[in-house]
Amino acid sequence: MELNVSIGRHRAWVIAAAGVAPLVTCAVLSAFRESVTSVTAVLVLVLLVVAAASSGIRSAGIVAALSGGVWFDFFLTEPYGRLTIDDRNDIGAAVLLVLIGAAVTEVALWGHRQQARASRRAGYLDGVLGTVEIVTLRQDTPEELIRHIGEQVRLVLGVSQCRFVPGPVVDPRIAILDHQGLVTRREHRIDVDRDGLPSDEYTALVVHRGGATVGHFVLTSAGAIARPSLEQRKVAVLLADQAGSVLGHPAP
């Protein structure tokens, strides 16, 4: 709860700063109207929008762009001190400022998403490689290794619980996460990206060894709906394959 409050407070401050910064900047530039061109002023304001958008908060970038357009009009276009523009070039500059600001915000957010996606992929890879190393060394008992793999599966899929059950899945109500990363229940495919993993029943991640089913991880998605991507589901399948390796070869 405290973390959420802190994040909300930080977000509010960033948005407020995004709105105030163009006001202060335009007020300062208004003292140098004779030497500062409209193009220069627009470029300075675009830099402020870039700075706001780099926070990763879309509303901060949009607020900075709108604020820049309003105060550019108020301080730097004739008639000064009024939200009115008489010159067509100044109108074009103001409109361009807002459009560029909105575009820059979307580009910055796209970059944030790509960076976050790359970080997640690196995390998935580290988890799989770490699990493979632990399984290969076989310093723990099979039960401990299975628990470790189950915890990695839980973290990757974002589910609330993950436990291993020996034997095949016998309850037809349980959804199955197959080796292609697809989730089906009673031969009907579930759109995990849209609806998430079933929260009314368990989801089973089947563990195979040599083509035979030796058990399955029971996934519980309760409290909050888990919507793991196809990439996450395939990583979970790779981890489950390590469980099959553990069950196929007892520890020395």
What does this structure look like?
With 252 residues, the chain is α+β, with helices and mostly antiparallel strands. It has two domains: 2-115; 141-248, 2-Layer Sandwich (Beta-Lactamase), CATH 3.30.450. Helix content is 60%, strand content 12%. The chain is built from seven helices and six strands. It has helices spanning 2-29, 38-53, 58-76, 88-137, 142-157, 192-195, 230-248; strands at 161-166, 175-177, 183-185, 188-189, 203-209, 212-220. It has a six-stranded mixed beta sheet. Strand 2 and strand 3 form a beta hairpin. The model is unreliable at 1-8 (pLDDT under 50).
Please count the helical segments.
Answer: 7
Q: What percentage of the residues does DSSP assign to strands (E)?
A: 5-15%
Please give the radius of gyration in angstroms. 27 Å
Low-confidence stretches: 1-8
Number of strands: 6
Order of helices and strands: HHHHHEEEEHEEH
Number of domain units: 2
Give the biggest beta sheet. Answer: 6 strands, mixed
What value does the average pLDDT take? 78
Structural class category: alpha+beta
Strand order of the largest sheet: 1-6-5-2-3-4
Roughly how many Å apart are the termini? 46 Å
Helix residue percentage:
55-70%
Indicate the overall shape.
elongated
